[in-house]
């Protein structure tokens, strides 16, 4: 009897192990399917946020310009850490708002868009209202401060870092919301996985590229010291390219504020969105119609952004004057 009982027990254990093996295989297949779904959704979300990623890159590269060479990478790292903190706040906040108060997402995004337009208008008016002599004097003063060993560079950079992190918050919010929209029908676990993947990929991608851009001139100097003629030619090219690239990024960064901010506002106001779409479709003619449509749509978004930024800037300045009176 004891032997029979032992055999029965072993048979039961074997059956249980078979069941466990079967369930493990099923679970593994389901996990693989979920992982494939998450990967696919992440790719789609990345494609849809690529436009904002380009604006984010231009803005942040421009934000860390005019920093002393040995402080460039520490500043980029500081802004990257701030960007990660932004996303650690935004991902759970977006999921929470989407679950509890989805109607709040658009108004909050529009506030962020108006703030971007306001910052763009401030930069544009500063450039237009200040003379070339004022800009050169400011540049000389900044260069002297960078060259001085007595100046606390970290303290001087705090405002620049804060401004970059603040701008990153708005752009990151746009990226997270767009990504969330692509996985709205997915399970909660998949939504979390996609948003976390997008947050990490975007942060590493943007600030890795920003770090590379701000060190182009150092790479040019390093190549220029090489004995090979080809390396020296490439080094001279990079040294000539660096200031022009930073000037382009300064312009692109300001334009990006109007494009992204104006785009958020246009999408949030239905009649304006339909008007811009209608105007863009009206110019979509011929084999290059898609290009004309994209240019018209982005151009109108930028115009809306510039007008909104000027209105907000005027309101802020009026409020400041009333407070001082």
How is this structure best described in words?
- By secondary structure, this protein is mainly α.
- The chain has 11 helices and no strands.
- The protein starts with a helix and ends with a helix.
- Helix 3 packs parallel to helix 6 (about 155-180).
- Helix content is about 90%, strand content about 0%.
- It has helices at about 1-50, 50-65, 70-100, 105-130, 130-145, 155-180, 190-215, 215-225, 230-270, 270-280, 290-325.
- The chain has one domain.
Q: State the secondary-structure class.
A: mainly alpha
Query: So what's the overall shape?
Result: globular
Intertermini distance:
102 Å
How would you spell out the order of helices and strands? HHHHHHHHHHH
Q: How many independent structural domains?
A: 1
Radius of gyration: 26 Å
Q: Give start-end ranges of low-pLDDT stretches.
A: 1-7, 30-35, 44-51
β-strand number = 0
For the sheet with most strands, the description reads: none
The fraction of residues assigned to DSSP E strands is under 5%
Mean pLDDT: 74
What characteristics describe this protein?
325 residues, mainly alpha, globular, disordered N terminus
List the helices and strands and how they pair.
Layout: H1 2-48, H2 50-63, H3 69-100, H4 105-129, H5 132-147, H6 153-182, H7 188-214, H8 216-224, H9 229-268, H10 270-282, H11 289-324
